[in-house]
Every structure is written in structure tokens, then in C-alpha cells.
Design brief:
3 helices; 4-stranded antiparallel β-sheet; flat; 652 residues; 51 strands
């Protein structure tokens, strides 16, 4: 009824004898009596050297040690368990008939449920498969679902009934808070460390939080909520209003000394001031002097307040001594910025920087102008930067357009003392215009998204040791007709298959001199990370630039022998071995060896004929010359005879 290998042992469920072990070339009953003759076993998992976890379809789980039952867990109320499989050293997944996939620990405690609510196509799981990267595949009653259970990137959705945008994230008092397009939500965390995406639990709305909550800031060991409806402080999972109008964007303590007495609030109509005393925040009203909506605020080491407006420029603000007004100066492209548009201010490495459409700038007090950042320009160049944040390890997270990257100063790249890692899986997934990255620690990076919050385990992502491979899938030759000359596998190489033998090099007539190559990398779920470079030896002088394209065409190649080479790399710098394919374009008939031999023979024949013709001409000319000489000699003799006869007659 069931057959499974656990460790180095093979077990089977027999309908009449229960659990059996294949030992000494025969099936022997395990000492469990008829415990497993009634009902089906859906999973057997080896724990250590002498313990088995046996999961049944409807009667719960059993722990067996030395072939005897030592512990039993009752069936959990998730419907029948169709199939089970071990996920890691502490957990297994049960594919159920009504509740989808249920992850449990070996004590029978539910760790996580993955059902239709979490994105499964339906809840009737017939089979499960754990791939080599410990991600889960579920065969369903209707369809197949891929569950990135062990993936470095996961999505957290606070509401199961409504798709909410995630604007900000904060961990506070061992609870995860998410500011969304419909209030703030929280969930207790099962652990204080490790990958927090494995925590289980349902989110609860923070009471009194309404509409958009743009940001969560921790100030003086309190959580302040920046809301469309104003400013609030979190108390006992409830949003307690500080002021109702105008709406608030963010909070910045004026002093770095804890606790900060004064806190600036970037609001819809300028800057508000909060005062902190005796554990309470009090609204001190709006600071006169600037009336723009200020969503980006930073304070430099000289207590100058910098505020950027995406459409107007950068404001340089100075707080008055009585904390009631601010002096304001608007700086634009006339002060050195590339443009008055798309400027964003942040604090990185204890310096205020300005992200623009053409790189990162800093303000030079000596010249009273913005200049390219001497620190960040050599790293990021003049690329568009919309957001920056620094984590506890000194890495700089940034958004460029719709892309996310991180500058890692703890890892060098060539002669550069840093490495830039892009996260292509998240291209276009961030909340454009409201970018937010909360690097809690290297295992838990939270990124605002249009669909909740994205969780990135950067440590797992950056240390991914998956080998990059590239396969040549197809080669086509084009002439009077199309012809597939390679279909992805060499048949004469046995198990190797992907290596070309010298005897398998194709030689094609001159009419087939255009080629189409298709290639790919067998990395499911990572295609957006892979780029390719190619070179056609005999035609290309160098390797091509890296590109995500998976095909290449060559047309009208001259005759000759060619070697097509292809390699791949991922965004972490891992590079594949080079795969090659050799072929030959034969010359036209008039350029073959036999043709050249014919040309030589023809040339020699022409030379021979020319020589014979020349010799004939010479003989004819010689004969004519001799005849002319004879004629001239005869005429001369006649003239001499006439002369003698004339002289004789005169003498008489």
C-alpha cells in the first residue's frame, strides 16, 4: 500500500501485516502489531539513526524508535493527508485534501499553512516534491504549483481579502508592523532572530489607523505613524492621533541625543513640530516659513534641514531659536543640480546626499553649490537614483528606476573595493514613487511593494552557491530551406551528450551560410538573473557584451571553419563553463581544391599553348626571313649581272 526509503532502509505498508522492513533480502514486520493495517500511511521520515516519523492519512503521526512506537500525535484538523515529505531537519510538509500544504514540525505543531488564500491554485494536494534547492512543488487536483518555500525572496500580504500596497515596515517589540494603503497592520513574530519569513500568524489591523499610512518611524522607543489623516503614535496596538490635519509623511528628531525633545514632521503643507516630554508627544503646530509638501527631510551635522521636492528642487531650511519658524531657500539647477525635478535627499555614511536623475550630489558650503558626491559618484556613476538607505553592515541599498541594487563594501570586485549586486527578481515589483527598503538585518530586508511587502533574505541570496550552467538548445542553418543541424544533444557521446565529437562537426554547402543559435540556462525561477555572452571564432574578434537575450543570428558567413562559444553568468558574479559548437561552411565549387587544381592545369595548358604558338610564329617568321633573304640575294645577283653586261658593251 505504501513504499518509502528512509535513510538506508526501505519500508513498506502491507495491508495485512502493517509496517514492514526490507532486511536480509526479505520483508520483516516492524514491531508495531497491527497498528498500520487500518488506514493508509502517507509519509515516512527518518529522524536520526534510529527514529522514524510515520504520518498517516487520517490517524495522526507516530514516532517509532527501534521499531517500537514511543509517541503519537493526534490527527490535525486539516482533512486527509494525501502525501508527506521532509522539508528540512526540523519540518515536514503534509499535502492535504482540503487545506492545501501544511508545514509541521516533528512534534506535530503547525508551522505554516499554504493554501488557496496564499496563492495555491486549489487546496487538494495530491503529491509534493522537494527540489534540490529545497523549494516545494505541489501536484494538485487541477494543476501544479511552485512554492518558493526556501527561496530568498518572499511576499508578505497583510490582508487576505484585499490586495494592499506596502509603504513602510518596522519591527517593534517582537512584532512586525506594515504601513499599507489601508491602515497599519501587525503580526507577532515567532522568533526574535533568523529568517522571520518563516514565522506563522495572521495580521491584525492597528486600531484607528485609516486610509494610507505612508510611513512608520521609531522615535524615542515609540512608533510614530505618518498617515494621510495626520500624525499618530502607536499605543497598545492602537493609533492615537497627535494632530489630524494636515497629512504627515515622515518624522526626523532634531537631536541625535536620546530622547530627542523636538521632532520634525514632514507634512502635506510644510513642517510640523512635535515636542517629547514625560513619555508623551505633543503637537506644537506648523513651523512658518515654508508651505510645500515635504516628503523627504534630513538634518546635517550643522543642524541645517534639507528638504527635497520632486518637482521644485531642494529647500535649505534653518530652524529658529524659538522653534516656531524656519528660514527657507529654494535651490535648483542654477545651484548645480542637474535639474529642478526628481531630487531626493537622504543621509548616508553620516552625510546628507541628494539623489538625482544623473547621479548622487552633495552640497559644498564653500561654493554654495551642489557637486557630484566624491564618495558615491565613483561607485554609482551618473545613473538615476531615487532612493537610498544604509544597513547596519554599512551596505547601501538603492533604487534606480524600477530596479533595486545594493553596494556591498565587505566584498571586493576585481580592483574595486566594493561589489554592486542587483536584485533582478524585483525589477518592476517595488512601489514606484514610494520606494522603501527596511534592512532590519542581513536575513530580513523588507521592501515596499504594490502587493504587500517583499521579504528578502540577503544572506541567503548573496551566498547562493548554485552553479550556473548554459545549454545550447538548437542550431539552425538557413539556405534554400531551413535545417536544424543541432537539437541540443550529441548522440554519439553516450551519457555526456553535451560535448561535441570531432566526427560530429557539420560541413555545409555554401548555400547554407546563415545560422540561428538558441541557448538557455536551466535555472528555474532565476531567468531574470542570467545574462549571456557569445563569440563566433573565425568571425567575431572578441566576446560580446553580457545580455539577457537567448538567441543569436549570423548571416552570409564567408566559407571557413567556425566555433560558436556561449557562456552565462548571474547577478552574483557566478559564471558558467563555456559551451561550444563547431561547424564549417564549405566554399563554392569554384573555390574548392579540385577547382584550384583545374585552374593550375588550365594555366599550364595556356602557357604551353602560348609557347607553342610563339614557337610556330617564330618558325614562320624565320622562313619568311630566309625567303626574303633569298629573294634579295637573287635580285642582287641579277643587278650584278646587268652591271657586268653593261660594262662589257661599253668597252666594245
Amino acid at each position: 500500500m505504501y513504499l518509502k526509503q528512509a535513510g538506508h532502509r526501505l519500508y513498506a505498508q502491507d495491508k495485512y501485516n502493517g509496517l514492514m522492513l526490507f532486511k536480509n533480502n526479505e520483508w520483516q514486520p516492524v514491531n508495531t502489531g497491527h497498528k498500520f493495517t487500518d488506514g493508509l500511511i502517507s509519509g515516512i521520515i527518518g529522524i536520526g539513526a534510529d527514529t522514524l516519523l510515520v504520518i498517516t492519512q487520517a490517524k495522526g503521526q507516530f514516532l517509532l524508535r527501534n521499531d517500537s512506537i514511543i509517541q503519537q500525535h493526534a490527527a490535525f484538523s486539516t482533512g486527509n493527508v494525501n502525501i508527506s515529505a521532509q522539508i528540512n531537519a526540523m519540518e515536514f510538509v503534509a499535502g492535504t485534501s482540503t487545506e492545501g500544504c501544511v508545514v509541521l514540525n516533528f512534534n506535530g505543531e503547525v508551522v505554516q499553512k499554504i493554501s488557496r488564500t496564499e496563492g495555491l491554485q486549489n487546496n487538494d494536494v495530491i503529491s509534493v516534491f522537494l527540489d534540490k534547492h529545497n523549494n516545494l512543488w505541489a501536484g494538485l487536483n487541477n494543476g501544479i504549483s511552485f512554492i518558493a518555500y526556501n527561496a530568498a525572496i518572499k511576499y508578505i500580504t497583510p490582508s487576505k481579502s484585499n490586495e494592499l500596497s506596502g509603504y513602510s515596515t518596522r519591527i517593534f517589540n517582537n512584532e512586525l508592523y506594515i504601513a499599507t494603503s489601508d491602515g497599519a497592520w501587525y503580526v507577532p513574530l515567532a522568533a526574535a532572530s533568523g529568517d522571520l519569513s518563516f514565522s506563522k500568524g495572521d495580521f491584525t489591523r492597528v486600531r484607528n489607523s485609516k486610509a494610507e499610512v505612508w510611513r512608520l518611524d521609531e522615535v524615542n522607543n515609540h512608533i510614530l505613524l505618518a498617515q494621510h489623516t495626520g500624525s499618530a503614535v502607536l499605543k497598545d496596538h492602537s493609533a492615537v492621533p497627535l494632530f489630524a490635519e494636515p497629512g504627515a509623511w515622515l518624522y526626523k528628531p532634531v537631536s541625535a541625543v536620546y530622547p530627542a525633545k523636538n521632532v520634525l514632521v514632514g507634512s502635506y503643507t510644510g513642517v510640523q513640530l512635535l515636542e517629547y516630554s514625560a513619555g508623551q508627544f505633543t503637537d506644537k503646530g506648523k513651523l512658518e516659513g515654508v508651505g510645500e509638501s515635504l516628503r523627504f527631510l534630513e538634518i546635517d551635522n550643522n543642524n541645517i534641514i534639507w528638504a527635497s521636492h520632486p518637482y521644485r528642487g531642494v529647500y535649505k531650511l534653518q530652524l529658529s531659536a524659538d522653534n516656531k519658524t524656519v528660514s527657507s531657500q529654494l535651490l535648483t539647477d542654477s545651484a548645480g543640480l542637474p535639474s529642478a525635478l526628481s531630487n531626493y535627499v537622504f543621509k548616508i555614511k553620516n552625510r546628507v546626499v541628494f539623489c538625482t536623475g544623473k547621479g548622487v550630489y552633495e552640497f559644498d558650503p564653500a561654493t554654495n553649490r551642489f557637486v557630484p558626491s566624491a564618495f558615491l559618484t565613483p561607485i554609482l556613476g551618473n545613473m538615476e537614483i531615487r532612493y537610498m538607505n544604509e544597513d547596519a553592515d554599512g551596505n547601501i541599498w538603492f533604487c534606480s528606476g524600477k530596479d533595486i541594487g545594493v553596494v556591498n563594501f565587505n566584498q571586493s570586485s576585481g580592483d574595486k573595493p566594493f561589489t554592486i549586486t542587483w536584485i533582478p527578481e524585483l525589477n518592476g515589483k517595488i512601489l514606484l514613487g514610494f520606494e522603501n527598503i527596511y534592512p532590519y538585518n542581513k536575513e530580513n530586508i523588507f521592501i515596499g511593494s504594490e502587493k504587500g511587502t517583499i521579504h528578502l533574505n540577503y544572506e541567503k541570496y548573496a551566498t547562493n552557491k548554485q552553479a550556473v550552467k548554459v545549454l545550447l538548445g538548437q542550431v539552425k542553418a538557413f539556405g534554400k530551406s531551413d535545417s536544424v543541424i543541432f537539437g541540443g544533444y550529441f548522440h554519439h557521446r553516450g551519457a555526456a551528450g553535451y560535448l561535441q565529437d570531432d566526427t560530429e562537426m557539420v560541413a555545409l554547402p555554401k548555400g547554407y551560410n546563415s545560422f540561428h543559435f538558441e541557448y538557455s540556462s536551466p535555472a528555474y525561477g532565476l531567468q531574470s538573473n542570467i545574462e549571456y555572452s557569445y563569440q563566433l571564432e573565425g568571425y567575431d574578434q572578441r566576446w560580446s557584451a553580457w545580455s539577457p537575450k537567448t538567441e543569436k543570428d549570423y548571416t552570409n558567413l564567408p566559407d571557413g571553419k567556425y566555433l560558436f562559444k556561449i557562456k552565462a553568468h548571474d547577478n552574483l558574479g557566478h559564471e558558467s563553463e563555456v559551451v561550444t559548437y563547431s561547424f564549417e561552411v564549405l566554399p563554392a565549387w569554384y573555390k574548392t581544391t579540385w577547382a584550384y587544381i583545374g585552374y593550375v592545369l588550365l594555366f599550364l595548358a595556356v602557357l604551353y599553348l602560348l609557347n607553342r604558338w610563339q614557337e610556330r610564329n617564330l618558325r614562320i617568321q624565320q622562313r619568311r626571313f630566309d625567303e626574303e633573304q633569298q629573294r634579295l640575294k637573287y635580285i642582287h645577283q641579277l643587278e650584278l649581272g646587268k652591271k657586268r653586261k653593261g660594262n662589257h658593251q661599253a668597252a666594245e
